[in-house]
């Protein structure tokens, strides 16, 4: 996701410095070239060697080093970066930035860079709540710095409150967002994900193995592209992606109500959820007792949410369905595309290795009225990227 990107990580002195090492590892894993700059105080907590080993690049510390000065290295570093991340950012660093002070290597780079800067504060709760820090935070926001607010919890100073460095996964997501062109800015999109559960008594239900991974990846990528995203999710164990509003539902009927309630104002809807086609015709209010012999459950058809969306599709809206198939994949998918009045259908052959339910990867064919693209096996996030590319093309053409 960060291939070809250059990230400058500024590390200032606080107990959370050790967490920045994990951030370097994740940035590198995503393909970024990472350059770390440490303040003198940060070097009291962790040596430069750790960051040098993880980034495979020399760590910048000294504004007046002979070697760096010969190349005016702080200006060079400021120019090269696609993104600057400050983690942890101390109250002192924030104060210097708010005042425009440039008295060391890191603060000099910060004045010279035109790249977006993500500030991730970490400090004692009283320091975070101090009016001077609040004022500096306001100034930084007004100056265009992005801030990943600290998490609330137990702090190293034995106090409790806001001040812990934000979760590394949230910092990574914010960095990815800042490096992603906002191609869905101003667009509202709805994604459904996960399975539905159709209870026949309070403790038993019909369902399927959908993990929600495909739908959550679609929601995450849309948010990264700056869309306003609603995720209607059946029961699954995944965390809601950052900047996504999640509505949790259990049954197909609840999913239909949630989706139809919001559908009219969406620019695009992607139905990834594995909605149960049937539900038990009768639901027992009490646990059905075990008894000898067979138990029959009569099933009634569930409403087809996607078909309802297709029948009432507002002009300009892009409607995307998925087709989970085990045979005649393309024919069945094309039939759903036409019958449900869709703009695109994503044909998912469940017999393929690494595709479909539960996997981290998927292998799909994206089919429209006149264009078909077969994708090779790739991560669900990569599949999501390709689906949103197609949706954006349709939104731009206005022909849907
Ligand atoms: O969640 P994961 O573990 O990541 O797995 C991903 C997935 C396999 C669930 C996903 O890639 C997928 O294929 N989703 C569609 C599953 C499905 O229900 O397919 P279907 O062919 O039965 O339904 C066709 C379309 O109609 C789907 O968009 C479905 O959301 C929708 N539908 C189906 C039944 C129903 N009653 N209402 C609906 O809206």
Q: Please give the order of strands in the largest beta sheet.
A: 12-11-8-13-16-17-19-20
Q: List each distinct ligand once.
A: ligand PMT
**Residue-averaged pLDDT:** 94
Helical stretch tally: 15
Class inferred from helices and paired strands:
alpha/beta
Q: Report strand %.
A: 15-25%
| Major β-sheet profile | 8 strands, mixed
Task: Give the C-alpha Rg.
Answer: 25 Å
The domain count comes to 2
CATH superfamily of the largest domain: CoaB-like
What's the CATH first level of the largest domain? Alpha Beta
N- and C-termini, Cα separation: 30 Å
DSSP strand count? 21
| CATH level 3 topology of the largest domain | Rossmann fold
Helical proportion?
25-40%
Low-confidence stretches: none
CATH architecture grouping of the largest domain: 3-Layer(aba) Sandwich
What coarse outline follows from CA principal-axis ratios?
elongated
Describe the protein.
This protein has 400 residues and is α/β, with parallel strands linked by helices. It folds into 2 domains: 6-178, Flavin prenyltransferase-like (Rossmann fold), CATH 3.40.50.1950; 188-277 and 300-399, 3-Layer(aba) Sandwich (Rossmann fold). Helices cover 36% and strands 24% of the residues. It contains 15 helices and 21 strands. It has an 8-stranded mixed sheet, with helices on both faces. Helix 5 (73-80) packs across helix 7. The longest helix is centred in the C-terminal third of the chain and has 18 residues, at 380-397. The radius of gyration is 25 Å and the shape is elongated. The two termini are 30 Å apart. The mean pLDDT is 94.
């Amino acid at each position: 996701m960060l291939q070809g990107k250059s990230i400058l990580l500024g590390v200032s002195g606080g107990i959370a410095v050790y967490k920045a090492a994990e951030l370097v590892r994740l940035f590198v894993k995503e393909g970024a070239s990472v350059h770390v700059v440490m303040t003198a105080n940060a070097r009291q907590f962790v040596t430069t060697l750790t960051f040098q080993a993880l980034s495979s690049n020399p760590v910048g510390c000294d504004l007046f080093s002979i070697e760096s000065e010969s190349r005016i290295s702080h200006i060079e570093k400021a120019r090269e970066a696609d993104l600057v991340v400050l983690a942890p950012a101390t109250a002192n660093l924030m104060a210097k930035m708010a005042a425009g002070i440039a008295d060391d290597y890191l603060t000099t780079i910060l004045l010279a860079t035109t790249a977006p800067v993500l500030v991730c504060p970490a400090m004692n709760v009283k320091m975070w709540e101090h009016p001077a820090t609040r004022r500096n935070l306001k100034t930084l926001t007004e100056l265009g710095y992005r801030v990943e607010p600290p998490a609330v919890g137990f702090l190293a100073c034995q106090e409790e409150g806001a001040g812990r460095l934000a979760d590394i996964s949230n910092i990574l997501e914010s960095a990815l967002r800042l490096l992603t062109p906002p191609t869905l800015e101003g667009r509202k999109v709805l994604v459904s994900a996960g399975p539905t559960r159709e209870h026949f008594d309070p403790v038993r239900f019909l369902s399927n193995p959908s993990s929600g991974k495909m739908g959550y990846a679609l929601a995450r990528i849309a948010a990264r592209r700056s869309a306003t995203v609603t995720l209607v999710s059946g029961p699954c164990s995944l965390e809601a992606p950052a900047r996504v509003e999640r509505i949790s539902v259990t049954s197909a009927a609840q999913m239909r109500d949630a989706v139809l309630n919001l559908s009219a104002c969406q620019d695009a809807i992607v139905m990834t959820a594995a909605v149960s086609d049937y539900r038990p015709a009768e639901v027992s209010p009490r646990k059905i007792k075990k008894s000898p012999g067979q138990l029959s459950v009569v099933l009634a058809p569930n409403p087809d949410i996607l078909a309802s969306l297709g029948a009432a599709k507002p002009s300009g809206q892009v409607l995307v369905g998925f087709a989970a198939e085990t045979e005649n994949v393309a024919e069945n998918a094309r039939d759903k595309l036409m019958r449900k009045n869709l703009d695109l259908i994503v044909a998912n052959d469940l017999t393929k290795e690494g595709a479909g339910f539960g996997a981290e990867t998927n292998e799909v064919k994206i089919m429209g009225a006149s264009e078909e693209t077969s994708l090779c096996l790739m991560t669900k996030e990569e599949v999501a990227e390709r689906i949103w590319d197609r949706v954006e093309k349709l939104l731009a053409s206005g022909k849907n």
